[in-house]
């Protein structure tokens, strides 16, 4: 299951549009009716220009490695360019780490199919530990991006910019993947060390 969750995050927006890391929404009041998007959703491979109430079309930028959002789209949504650029630079690192975590989860899953061999169970444990560490780092980075973006809201609100930062479902899928991977480390440790009633 951890492999599946890591893979889903690795294939997040715009490949899987329902999975994203964070959203930046305009909260300006009294704006005229427009077809311009009022929300940007950031995934690992791109960004989605979410439609407003007056439009049913969404525009995706990506999938690509190290994507950018056109400045005119950022300006029309009322979101700060500095926030968007900071998020995009951070997402390039996360892109690579999400894919690495998904591949490591797959390798751990494949190696755990051969637990009858003691040597392979130790190898599977090593892969599980590495996967758990990488997945934990990826989850921490996902959380840090959203928290840092949320901390910038009061500063930018003082400059007349009105928007809100929201959590996507990607970090929570990452949390589940981390928990499941650390549980696998515990179970594989019991198998490799023959402890807690596990016998050769």
Automatic annotation (TrEMBL):
Keyword tRNA processing attributed: no
A GO cellular component entry from the record: cell division site
Signal sequence segment: 1-18
Lineage summary: Eukaryota, Fungi, Dikarya, Basidiomycota, Agaricomycotina
Name the UniProt record assigns to this protein: Pali-domain-containing protein
Keywords: Membrane, Signal, Transmembrane, Transmembrane helix
Keyword Transmembrane helix attached: yes
Transmembrane segments: 91-115, 122-149, 169-190
